[in-house]
Amino acid sequence: MCGIVGYIGPRQAVPILLKGLKRLEYRGYDSAGLAIINSANQLAVYKTKGKVADLALIHNGIIENYPMLREKLLQQGYTFQSSTDTEVLVQWIEYIRSTRKTDLFHAVQLTLTHKSSSS
Questions:
Q1: Backbone φ/ψ region at 11: left (φ over 0), alpha (ψ -120 to 50), beta
Q2: Distance (Å, rounded) from C-alpha 119 to C-alpha 110?
Q3: 32 forms bridges with which residues in the sheet?
Q4: What are phi and psi of 50, to 5 degrees?
Q5: How is residue 33 annotated by DSSP?
Q6: Nearest to 34 by CA among 23, 49, 21
Q7: Among 47, 49, 87, 110, which one is most buried in terms of CB atoms within 10 A?
Q8: Can you name the residues that pair with 33 across neighbouring β-strands?
Q9: pLDDT score for 69
């Protein structure tokens, strides 16, 4: 069994899509995904096994130092499926979690207080 949710319009698509996917969760799905056209007019795909809540990191704004963070992650062997700042943020959280040997909650806190001059 599967389900598809779509949206075309002037509002932010991700919250609408997530709400629609959440409504389909009762069917017992074991995975979910989003495909959106980002502000750079590129297709960004996000997918995961598990619940819809495990799927998407949503942020409002621009991560200005994401090219520097992306380069550091590439040097550490990370790979990317897109060129979005959101994916860099997700990968950076994982980098902090694994290098600092911390849980996800603290990795997010450390990431959000990260200064671009340190690493």
A1: beta
A2: 11
A3: 48
A4: 110, -155
A5: E
A6: 21
A7: 87
A8: 47
A9: 93
Q: How far is CA 68 from the centre of its chain?
A: 18
Q: What is the DSSP letter of 10?
A: S
3 state SS of 37: strand
36 DSSP β-pair partners: 44
Complete DSSP assignment for 79-98: --SS--HHHHHHHHHHHHHH
| Sequence-distant (≥ 6) Cβ neighbours of residue 103 within 8 angstroms | 97
What distance in Å separates the CA atoms of residue 7 and residue 20, rounded to the nearest whole number?
A: 10
33-73 pLDDT, tens per residue? 888 877 677 777 777 777 777 777 766 678 888 999 999 99
- Give the predicted TM-score (pTM) of the model: 0.57
For the stretch 10-13, contacts whose Cβ atoms lie closer than 8 Å and that sit 24 or more positions apart, written own/partner, are none
